[in-house]
Amino acid sequence: GRKAQGRFLGETTKAGTMVSKRYSKKPTNEEKTVKSRGSYLRVSFKNTREAAMALKGRSLPSVQKYLTNVIEKKQIIPFRRFNGGVGRKAQAKQFKTTQGRWPEKSCRFLLDLVQNAESNAEAKGLDVDKLVLEHIQVNQAPKGRRRTFRAHGRIGPYQSNPCHVELFFSEKDDTVPAPTEEAEAAQQLAA
């Protein structure tokens, strides 16, 4: 499957020890957070970055539904940063932009990572419906180098642009913190 094309967290080395990676950020509450990451994924960095930005702040079921809709071309990924030469699409209006695409391969890779996070949540005993995407980051991985043959016997580069992806889902509490005495006093003055 997809695991052959990249390295997922939790892979064992030849010595049989677990490979643990450092994340770029620490979660606010470690007990109520599940993580997932993919390294050296052979999928476009730019497309994956745009798809990841469209997912921020969504709940886990919402992320899964959105990504499957993008794969089926029912919803679009808005392209905001890497949008040179990206065509204008009517579906992009819902995101208050004009440009967008349906990067199927990127969405399939992200869906795999989300599914991995969902499995981690079930193993931890967290409520999957309350999980919200707190952090997602896409970094460039080293370019894969191949060569192409040009006119007059020259050779040119033919590179792939893989990426690393990491994400956290955190369980959000429904409770609102009790107001402090200072906040209550400020409300009474305002009224």
Structural class: alpha+beta
What value does the average pLDDT take? 89
Question: What low-confidence regions span 5 or more consecutive residues with pLDDT below 50?
Answer: none
The side-by-side strand order for the widest beta sheet comes to: 1-2-8-5
The total of helices stands at: 4
The overall strand count is: 8
Largest sheet: 4 strands, antiparallel
Distance between the termini: 62 Å
The 3D shape can be described as globular
Commentary on this structure:
Helix content is 28%, strand content 24%. A 4-stranded antiparallel β-sheet has the order 1-2-8-5. A two-stranded antiparallel ribbon has the order 3-4. Strands 6-7 form a two-stranded antiparallel sheet. By secondary structure, the protein is of the alpha+beta class. Strand 6 (144-149) and strand 7 form a beta hairpin. It contains 4 helices and 8 strands, in the order ββααββαββββα. It is globular and about 80 Å long. The protein has helices at residues 45-55, 60-71, 104-124, 181-190, and strands at residues 7-8, 33-41, 77-78, 100-101, 131-140, 144-149, 155-160, 163-171. The model has no long low-confidence stretch (mean pLDDT 89).
From the structure above, extract its key features.
single chain; alpha+beta; two-stranded antiparallel ribbon; 4-stranded antiparallel β-sheet; 8 strands; 24% strand; 191 residues
